[in-house]
Design a protein that fits this description.
Helix 3 runs parallel beside helix 13, helix 9 (267-279) runs antiparallel to helix 10 and helix 11 runs parallel beside helix 13. A two-stranded antiparallel ribbon has the order 1-2. A two-stranded antiparallel ribbon has the order 3-4. It is 42% helix and 3% strand. The protein has helices at 28-47, 62-66, 69-79, 91-102, 117-128, 137-148, 180-196, 210-218, 267-279, 287-298, 313-326, 342-353, 372-387; strands spanning 253-257, 260-263, 332-333, 339-340.
């Protein structure tokens, strides 16, 4: 089960869009439509909040209790509302939700219940950084240390060293290894903490081995120039893109002929790889970054999650908006040479997909995308990012 990732934008990286681009007057009407769609989505999410502060799928609230990150994600959406409603209309929703997250703090510093400890802690840390409450400082510092302490080293499969997985608690053996998804959300949370605490020294605090993390991410990329694993391919369909973890792609294999096969690069993990490099401060002209952007340009589409069809489609929109905004990409040049204003393109796509009640949901269930709370949170945050790009 791959869950959600969140979306704060931080100004410290060389590739970050520290300031939103200049407004395009031609997009005024679309911006207004985006703002309306955001407010409709948040109004629907507000109706799903429970008495304990959690925000749950109205048809099945069990996953919300099990995974506090499923509440943290909508809280990030409420906080990022672009016209300042977080301090007024949504203040009570946020305060109740933050209280729920605090109730899930564990003695080891993690924020989780029965499993997926890194994922839950990382997403919850991103949400709780927005409280700006001095009383939360010990909690935040301990969560940060917990995440940094999850980094793998001395693994049986050394190619997974430097990455981060779901965590050992309540995880099946299938997930008991680092992967690019979890590494991304951990890097984002740690970068967010560092950005919000630029001069803070934590006595005894743990730090991530950032170079080891970069090396792990590189070992998830189809780029033989830097990834020396036997499976890495530079065939035109896959070169520069990413897979789930070294040696395994959720998009399967691709037959290259002559007895050769490639592990297929796919959309969500290729944006995850790009963002991981950004959070680790790689420069824009680094060949790993340029190769990732080239694959993403060549495979740009809003009709599917490239390589996976409709599976994980809203997660794909979510990471695509975040990745392109942080990498300061204003236009995508597609494989046929067409130039696309991706922000406008994605805004109109999501507006057309919104349900009448304000929610979004995928008709393909993989990775929990039949959960309307999860998918609505993805969509609202995506539109919030887009609003600042139009």
């Amino acid at each position: 089960m791959k869950l959600l990732l969140c979306t704060a934008l931080f100004a410290s990286s060389a590739l970050f869009a520290a300031e939103p681009p200049t407004r395009n007057d031609a997009n005024l009407s679309v911006r207004n439509e985006v703002l309306l769609a955001i407010d409709k989505g948040l109004a629907w999410l507000k109706q799903q909040q429970k008495a304990d502060g959690s925000i749950a799928n109205p048809e099945n609230d069990a996953p919300s209790a099990e995974h506090p990150a499923l509440t943290a994600m909508p809280l990030i959406a409420f906080y990022r509302q672009p016209t300042g409603k977080a301090a007024g209309e949504y203040a009570d929703v946020l305060n109740k939700g933050y209280g729920f997250l605090r109730s899930k703090v564990q003695p080891d510093g993690g924020i989780y219940t029965t499993g997926l400890a890194n994922y839950n802690t990382s997403v919850c840390l991103l949400a709780l950084l927005n409280t700006h409450d001095p009383k939360d400082e010990p909690l935040l510092a301990h969560a940060r240390d917990f995440i940094a302490g999850m980094q793998a080293k001395d693994m049986t499969k050394p190619e997974t060293d430097g990455g981060i997985g779901y965590g050992t608690t309540g995880v099946s053996p299938k997930r008991g290894h680092p992967d690019l998804d979890n590494t991304l959300v951990a890097l984002e949370a740690l970068r967010a903490y560092k950005t919000s605490h630029p001069s803070t020294e934590i006595p005894g605090g743990k730090d991530l081995n950032w170079q080891a993390a970069i090396d792990f991410v590189s070992r998830c990329q189809n780029l033989p120039a830097v990834n020396k694993q036997a499976w890495a391919s530079d065939d035109p369909a896959n070169k520069g893109g990413f897979i789930y973890y070294p040696g395994s792609s959720n998009a399967g294999e691709q037959d290259l002929g002559n007895g050769k096969k490639a592990l297929r690069s796919y959309g969500t993990m290729s944006y995850a790889g790009l963002l991981s490099y950004i959070y680790a401060d790689l420069k824009q002209d680094d060949p790993r970054v340029t190769a990732a952007l080239e694959w993403l340009q060549k495979n740009y589409t809003l009709e599917e999650n490239p390589g996976l069809g409709r599976a994980g489609l809203y997660y794909y929109y979510h990471l695509a908006s975040k990745g392109l905004a942080t990498a300061k990409v204003r236009e995508m040049t597609t494989a046929d040479g067409k130039k696309v204003d991706w922000a406008r393109d994605m805004a109109l796509k999501l507006i057309n997909l919104q349900n009448g009640n304000g929610s979004w949901v995928n008709d393909t269930a993989r990775w929990m995308e039949k959960d309307p709370v999860l998918v609505t949170a993805y969509s609202v945050i995506t539109l919030e990012i887009i609003y600042n790009q139009l």
